[in-house]
Amino acid sequence: MSFIIVGYGRVGRRTARILHEEGYPVVVVDNDPDRADRAREAGFEVVEGDGSNESVLKRAGVENAVALGGLTGDPNINFAACMIGKDFGCRVAMRISEDFREEIYDRYEEDVDEVIYPERLGAAGAKTALLGGSFNALGELTEQLRLTTVTIPEGAPVIGRKVNDIDLDDFGRVYAHGRKREAMTIPLPGTIVEAGDQLALVVDDEDDGLERARSTLLGE
């Protein structure tokens, strides 16, 4: 059961590396010989070919893959690869740029599990989109402090509350807020939390801070 990364450019390369470092098997698909060679040198299994071609993705093991990320710079290739992956039961995430018109974004969003803006989120965001889930520890700032994002689901206890009123006691702090298709920003005093919003946190993980934050924001 592997993760397929279509496109070994900047975003695909970093996403593949993060998944690999966390112990997930990764297969890289790319039609550029130089990038394919770099992926092999990095230790990845590589299938050379067009990631929007079903036969190529079958060679990459799409029939048994957990998830597929269309992470090339071409949204048409990404979308086609994701649709093939979805047909085989994969979780799929596709990369687009932030300058897409809203109706184009909506069309893609209806058909894939995650639409991602790696230019803003980085490889860690692409990785968490492929893994799924709503509570994602993106990385460590120090030995104790952890940078975390959370997507607020329907029914969460913080829905309807002001972001600035969310009290994480002494184990964390909300420092940014974003809505679908919007970049995260420092929340205004009156910003109300809605289902689907994203919150970025810094959490002190020395005394189970991640679990305490999860309980406060998402409920038991």
Automatic annotation (TrEMBL):
Query: Domain RCK N-terminal, which positions?
Result: 1-116
User: Which Gene3D superfamilies does the record cross-reference, listed alphabetically?
Assistant: NAD(P)-binding Rossmann-like Domain, Regulator of K+ conductance, C-terminal domain
GO process terms (BP): monoatomic ion transmembrane transport; potassium ion transport
What Pfam families does the database record attribute to this sequence? TrkA_C, TrkA_N
Is Heme tagged as a keyword? no
Which keywords describe this protein according to UniProt?
Answer: Ion channel, Ion transport, NAD, Potassium, Potassium transport, Transport
Q: Does this UniProt record's set of keywords contain Cytoplasm?
A: no
Q: What does this chain do?
A: Part of a potassium transport system.
- Give the protein's recorded name: Potassium channel family protein
